[in-house]
Amino acid sequence: MPLWASRILVVVAMSLGAACALHAQVSNTPAPVAQVSAASSTSPQLSSLRRDQRQVTLAVAARAIARGETLQADDITLVDTTIVWRWSSIAPDTTRPAAGWVTRRNIAAGEVLRAPAVMAPPVVTSGAAVTAIWQDGPLRLVLAGVATNTAAVGAPVSVRIGSNRRLDGIAIAPNTVRLR
Q1: Which domain holds residue 112?
Q2: How do beta strands 176-179 and 129-136 pair?
Q3: What whole-number distance in Å separates Cα of residue 172 and Cα of residue 179?
Q4: Using CA atoms, how far apart are residues 70 and 118, in angstroms rounded to an integer?
Q5: pLDDT tens digits for 139-169?
Q6: How far apart are CA 89 and CA 102, in angstroms?
Q7: Is residue 13 in a domain?
């Protein structure tokens, strides 16, 4: 490493050390990394603390839940926490499961409830008769078919029309698929 580069590193390190010392003098306490407290808020709260921290409300399991169970309201506890989030262009995932969602694996008490461990209840079931809708302006085509996979609202679904024709779409309602 050239001498000028090592001098720059020393200057940067000294200024960072001074900034840390200044922060310690002003606050008299080290900056917290994580704070957890129980809350009963109903909407996700995002507020900036430091540049790389976000305050979020997470849904956690109130008890141990077995695979395949449907979540009840008393199975979900909301917890406020501070997380380190270094990506400024995207927000942390705050999708919150609700009563009626289904577990896809065993979940321990206190574990954060998030995909793929929990999923929204399916509105289309594999092998069920579905209505497939394709629309372009005033032109609307409605077909009857059979779903080839299980899907929640917004998830992709394949629909079998006849014996050898398959169409792809998105689940939009119980047993209803919007074709792409």
Answers
A1: 36-119
A2: parallel
A3: 10
A4: 9
A5: 999 999 999 999 999 999 999 998 889 999 9
A6: 31
A7: no
Specify if 162 maps to a domain: yes
Residue type, 15: S
Q: Which two tokens stand for residue 40?
A: 């009963």
Question: 0.90 exceeded by the pTM?
Answer: no
Q: Taken in order 62, 67, 73, 79, is the CA torsion positive or negative?
A: positive
Strand, coil or helix: what is 52? coil
Given CA atoms 6, 12, 14, 16 in this order, what sign does their dihedral have? negative
Report CA-CA distances (Å) from 162 to 1, 13, 68, 86, 122: 71, 70, 32, 51, 24
Residues in the chain: 180
State pLDDT tens for residues 95-110: 788 888 999 999 999 9
User: For the chain, what is the largest distance between any 2 Cα atoms, rounded to a whole number of angstroms?
Assistant: 76
Q: Does residue 134 sit in the same domain as residue 163? A: yes
- The H or E element spanning position 4 is helix 3-27
Maximum mean pLDDT: which of 34-48, 81-95, 129-143: 129-143
State the total domains in the chain.
Answer: 2
Check residues 129 and 38 and name the one with the higher pLDDT.
129
Question: Could you tell me which residues come within 8 angstroms of residue 11 by beta carbon, excluding any fewer than 6 positions away?
Answer: none
Determine the Cα–Cα distance for residues 32 and 52; give it in Å rounded to an integer: 12
